Hints:
Blueprint: H1 9-24, H2 27-37, H3 44-67, H4 74-100, H5 102-105, H6 111-120, H7 122-129, H8 132-137, H9 144-153, H10 166-177, H11 179-204, H12 215-226, H13 239-255, H14 257-287
Helix pairs in contact: 2-3, 2-4, 3-4, 10-14, 11-12, 11-13, 11-14
Amino acid sequence: MSRQRRGGPSGKAARLARRLKLASASELKRQTFYALENASRGRLAAKATGFALFALIVANAVIVFFSAEPGLDPVAAWVIARFYTFSTICFGLEYLARIWIADLAFGDVSPWRARLRYVCSPLGIIDLLSFMPNLVAWFVPVTPQLHDAVNVLRLVRLIKISRYMRGLRTIGRVLSKRKHEIVASFLVIGLLVVVSSILMYEIESPVQPDAFNSLLTGLYWAVETVTGTGYGDIVPVTVPGRLVGSLVMLLSVALVAIPGGIFAAGFVAEFQNASLRKIERDERRGSRPAAKAPTDGGAAGEEESDGDDAGPTEGEG
């Protein structure tokens, strides 16, 4: 495995390397790291910067919703355009800052490899797409197609909010740890969809060729039936077709529940692990001699972190 699970020997070594790099980094770089990765540990300026970035992402979500309305007032359109310009500049500066502090976020590798890891990570690509299309549109002629593409890519900014929501991080960890079971369950569901779509097409197409005119139509019926949506726009009318449909519905009740059970078990395990980590941290604090806590959110505060609070989010998914 390229990256072992948190809590293992390599995970502890990575956290230790990150703490050492944080301790030796300049104050500006350390506070920049806290502002972007864990604002609660930084000074007032770092906390304010982290909150401002979160508020900017939420504001973009709201503005995207209103900007899609047709017939905007010219003044409102001008304000929205200026807001997008401001957001593009802020997200561009954030991207450069994240490249700068990547060696602190990924403390177990060399600085240039850490920066490359961030740039190539899923969240790094999202950070790039959050400002690059708008930046390109400033310097090239804006065609209607380019304008529509930029508007669609602005939605990528909403994904950035995942850094500030631990629930979304938990989903990412569950997907990473249970990926083999999840993939296997979806493969079984996919097999049921493909087999049932072919059977239904072969049975129903001679009787109602307009309804089941291709295998893709049969596939649509199968997905509609397996998921329990049941729009009723395509239904079997023959006895064999209805028998196949009944069998598919009965099988789908059991099969579709499997991924939900896997997710539920994964969430329970994550919450239990989080509780155990909290108990272990409390025990470590109680066993240590009393010491004056750092007031500047410095690197000493990292000693009480288990890696989930201050660790990089780019490497988790």
